[in-house]
Amino acid sequence: MEFNIAVLGGDGIGPEVTDEGVKVLNALGGAFGHQFSLQYGDVGGISIDKHGTPLQDEVRELAWAADAVLFGAVGGPKWDDPTAPTRPEDGLLQLRAQLGVFANIRPVKVYPKLVNSSVLKPHVLEGVDMVVVRELTGGLYYGQPKERKQTPQGWTGVDTMFYTEAEIERVLRVGFALAQGRRKKLTSVDKANVLECSRLWRQIATRLAQDYPDVELEHVLVDACAMQLVQRPSSFDVIVAENTFGDILTDEAAVLAASMGLLPSASLSDVPVAGRRTKGFYEPIHGTAPDIAGKGIANPVGSILSVALMLRYSLGLTEEAASIERAVEVALDQGYRTPDIATEGAQKVSTTEMGQRIVDALV
Ligand code: IPM
Ligand code: MN
Fold first, then answer.
1. How far apart are CA 139 and CA 116, in angstroms?
2. Distance, CA 248 to ligand 2 centroid (Å)?
């Protein structure tokens, strides 16, 4: 089979880790007889520098035309001027919104071999295996008004948390559906003691629960959830949250896995079904890591596991997806570690070596 993949590496370590994702994809294509036709494009800061905009129309079209998008990361100190008219992140936010990928699925699991790489105590990490569904195209990130302006009180800034019932319902349904295929527990995160949006969210979650009688629904306030994530993380199965809440909670959840560099994500415009072909947007959850960019030491596992999710949810290649996930586990079992997850005495490898070890472990 032939598949069209748009590859948008972006800034900082984005292209470095994305190259390893592509390396694994190509190796897998060879092994299973698939052809991946790759279309590369600029996005983010590099696109601002080269073309004056974080997302050119032609890159937008390339993403639209592809079966799936493999994305790296965008941003960096060079483009951080708060008065700049545009930012690298705008390119990413536009892509997500225009592709309509409202459900950002972020699996968090702890590899037994990496328990000692986390700063948390091993007994807390036992049995951690959860999926966070982050609403991705609404909420505080996109609500209007969103602006800074001069007023009689001086400068003011406003962001708006806004959701329609339909937007809340569709992402909650993704959470319920995922929970049905797992341990049947859904934690709906909100701040219903303060926010109107959250009270609506909670009401809708409670109503939808009737359609999923086999799933146990709990409501947890976002601040309490942040605490419980490090206190008793194994009690979570599927978490569903507003855009900003999900962003914050998944950085925290990365501490459980030992490193941000390990976590992948899939962004979809529908309930995920393994084996079905549907367009999707795939990116590791980490950023551009300007401090290590260009040094060849970034962890490519988040990007490589994002490729696995792409195979499963966009290309209909479930067996191939599982073989990547197994290969990652084998490479970690063999002791290969990028610096972010290396404990004393570990076999430290570079970004490209880690990618190669995973390719070597592919079946
Ligand atoms: C993420 C990132 C992005 C986000 C940034 C780069 C805009 O933090 O994917 O988690 O906030 O969504
Ligand atoms: Mn984030």
1. 36
2. 6
